[in-house]
Specification:
Blueprint: H1 2-32, H2 35-40, E1 45-50, E2 57-58, E3 64-76, H3 86-93, H4 97-110, E4 116-122, H5 124-131, E5 140-149, H6 156-159, E6 162-164, H7 167-172, E7 182-184, H8 187-191, H9 193-196, E8 201-207, E9 213-216, E10 232-234, H10 238-247, E11 253-259, E12 264-271, H11 284-292, H12 302-305, H13 314-324, E13 333-336, E14 339-342, E15 346-349, E16 355-358, H14 359-364, H15 368-380, H16 386-398, H17 421-428, H18 452-464, E17 467-469, E18 474-477, E19 490-492, H19 500-512, E20 529-535, E21 543-550, E22 557-563, H20 573-586, H21 593-601
Helix pairs in contact: 10-20, 13-15
Length: about 625
């Protein structure tokens, strides 16, 4: 009997505990928590993402390069759509009936219940007309966002563009991106995506039976605020960039200008280019395909992706490396009879018969013979097997940032090509090869491939007399002006500073001495030190190349200009570089108008003939009726 009553009290106790738990939970749900209220009201609440403004990009002088402007995405919830005047709707947003049916089918396939984008990026004007009649179109609503706007239509390859995320990006983002979000695809938009994109917010709106917003839910208690992306201070000089793009119009090639003391890139021109505004708006897809199919490849980022044999500008590197190896010095002379003989019967021609010529003169007059002898000493007379001497030479040249990507803050940079000893051993099927097998490397030809960025960086090394900072396009980040640590590190080229003087003397004479190959590009009151190059092109006319830095004391700018299929470096690349150097240092150009007009008017695109000025009476530097200066080098 006692056992029965004991069991009765246990059962009663269990029921009492369960009842207390249920009552406590009911009290929490009804009085304390609003979780179920939210769930119940879910069918009258519209949760809208608040897209943050992407970070604004400024030039080095705080001038705007990229800003944001408002646009509107038209959203649809297919299940809520009621019959309406489809033709009127199509007319309002600028589509046809076929386009409407295709968009509606896509939205319904995605989800009949969830909102998705029906039409992207309606302009302010279209939105204004649509807003007045939006209540007539049940199931549709508008969502605000911003898109990029480029007020000066410049620097497209540097800035890059944004586009809608695909499924792969969504999956790799660990929940950050959703369908309809945008992200950086190229340029700094991609490199600095995590800083530029900001953080998305959410707004909860009450809507009525007609799907019309009736105000915020719970006074915005459950909303989250969007956080704008970080502001970017770029290293570009906007005015210099504009001038560079103007001078490269109707030409294929690149301009890269660097501040030697910091590695900041002042100008980054890839030509032909395109208006970055073409990659914004409802016609973006059509514009992209047009650019992609253009035979001149305007979307190819030539400063970091094009690889050229450097030509005679490489003589500067060989002159420095040979001095460091103790193979030549400023008093070393070789005799130039018009070329260099090597092997049993091979001959490498020179630009002129120079006679006895020293190191300085070899730079000024670009003597191929001098560098044939110099290279032979480094490879054949180094006191070791030639293959090992080549490896030593290869390592020294690599220290200039040649043959490996420099690590610029842009996607897609290429390494270039500095052939290894193993490369030649495999080619010649033996490791018993000497300078005669690779003599073209002495003058920057053969298998060498160098990007314009690497060319400009070599000039920064010479300007700094032996070191460089990693070239970069973003100078500072955010209000605190944060600078990435890697951009503050000095990188040594492994050359003693004392060996630069004679090379710089020769480079100064290239521009400022009458016998120099770029004398025509001399700048009034600025001592520019440079080197011309005419790069052999097996597929057409030679490429015109010029590298330089200025002024000689306390250099402010190092520059590389490449104009494809344009011939002599002195004819096209050197004058373009000289104008940019003068513009950057003096903030103005003092040369005669005819000097610049010749460059602006020239059409050097393959398949077009050069535009020749109708009158040359304004300048004594040109022969009547030609586009070439009176004095040009055969180099």
């Amino acid at each position: 009997m006692n056992s029965f009553f004991a069991r009765k009290f246990v059962v009663q106790g269990i029921f009492i505990v369960i009842t207390l738990i249920l009552l406590t939970r009911l009290f929490y749900i009804q009085v304390i928590s609003d979780e179920y209220i939210l769930s119940a009201e879910n069918n009258v609440i519209r949760r809208l993402p608040i897209y943050p403004a992407r970070g604004v990009v400024l030039d080095r002088n705080a001038k705007i390069l990229v800003q944001n402007e408002p646009v509107y995405d038209l959203m649809i919830i297919p299940l809520e759509v009621k019959p309406f005047d489809t033709l009127e709707f199509c007319k309002l947003i600028g589509i046809d009936k076929k386009g409407f049916d295709r968009r509606f089918k896509k939205a319904r396939s995605y989800s009949p219940y969830k909102a998705s984008i029906f039409e992207k990026q309606l302009s302010v004007q279209i939105y204004a007309a649509l807003q007045e009649k939006l209540s007539n179109f049940a199931g549709f609503f508008v969502q605000n966002r911003t898109v990029r706007r480029y007020p000066d239509s410049i620097a497209a390859h540097f800035l890059g563009y944004i586009g809608e995320v695909n499924q792969k990006v969504i999956e790799n983002s660990k929940g950050f991106y959703n369908q309809g979000d945008y992200h950086g695809i190229t340029g700094i938009e991609r490199s600095y995506e995590e800083l530029l994109r900001g953080r998305r917010g959410v707004q909860n709106l009450l809507v009525d039976a007609l799907n019309r917003p009736k105000g915020t839910y719970a006074d915005g208690k459950y909303d989250t605020v969007a956080v704008a992306g970080e502001q970017m201070i770029s290293s570009l000089d906007k005015d210099l960039q504009k001038l560079g793009e103007q001078l490269m119009k109707n030409k294929i090639g690149s301009i890269v200008a660097i501040e030697p003391s910091s590695g900041e890139i002042l100008s980054f021109v890839s030509s032909p280019g395109y208006d970055p505004n073409l990659m914004v708006g409802r016609q973006r897809g059509n514009n992209y395909m047009t650019l992609l199919n253009d035979k001149y490849k305007p979307m190819f980022v030539r400063p970091i992706q094009a690889e050229y044999p450097p030509g005679s500008i490489f003589k500067v590197v060989n002159a420095l490396v040979a001095q460091q190896f103790g193979m030549i010095d400023e008093n070393t002379y070789f005799f130039c009879p018009g070329g260099y003989r090597y092997g049993r019967s091979s001959f490498m021609g020179c630009t002129h018969v120079h006679g006895s010529i020293g190191l300085k003169g070899s730079i000024t007059e670009s003597c191929n013979t001098y560098y044939g002898y110099t290279y032979a000493r480094m490879i054949d007379k180094a006191g070791m097997r030639p293959i090992n001497a080549y490896k030593k030479w290869h390592s020294a040249v690599s220290a200039f940032g040649i043959g490996t990507a420099l690590g610029i803050d842009l996607p897609g940079e290429r390494n270039g090509l500095l052939p290894s000893a193993e490369f030649y051993t495999k080619r010649f099927r033996s490791d018993r090869w000497g300078s005669a097998f690779t003599i073209s490397l002495s003058i920057g030809q053969g298998e060498l491939g160098i990007t314009p960025l690497q060319m400009a960086n070599v000039m920064a090394i010479v300007a700094n007399r032996g070191f460089y900072y990693k070239p970069h396009l973003i100078k500072a980040i955010g209000e605190k002006r944060v600078i990435r640590e890697e951009f503050l590190k000095k990188n040594s080229a492994g050359i003693d500073p004392k060996f630069f003087d004679v090379v710089i003397d020769g480079m100064s004479a290239v521009v400022n001495q009458a016998s120099g190959t770029a004398w025509f590009s001399k700048i009034p009151d600025i001592e520019m030190c440079g080197k011309t190059g005419t790069v052999q092109n097996p597929n057409g006319k030679d490429h015109s190349v010029f590298v330089a830095f200025a002024p000689r004391k306390n250099p402010k700018i190092a520059i590389a200009v490449v104009v494809e299929n344009a011939g002599f470096g002195a004819t096209w690349s050197a004058p373009i570089a000289s104008l940019l150097v003068e513009k950057y240092i003096n903030k103005k150009i003092t040369r005669p108008k005819a000097y610049m007009d010749r460059l602006l008017e020239a059409n050097l695109l393959p398949g077009y003939e050069k535009i020749i000025r109708k009158s040359d009476s304004d300048s004594s530097n040109y022969k009547k009726g030609t586009t070439q200066p009176k004095k040009i080098s055969n180099e």
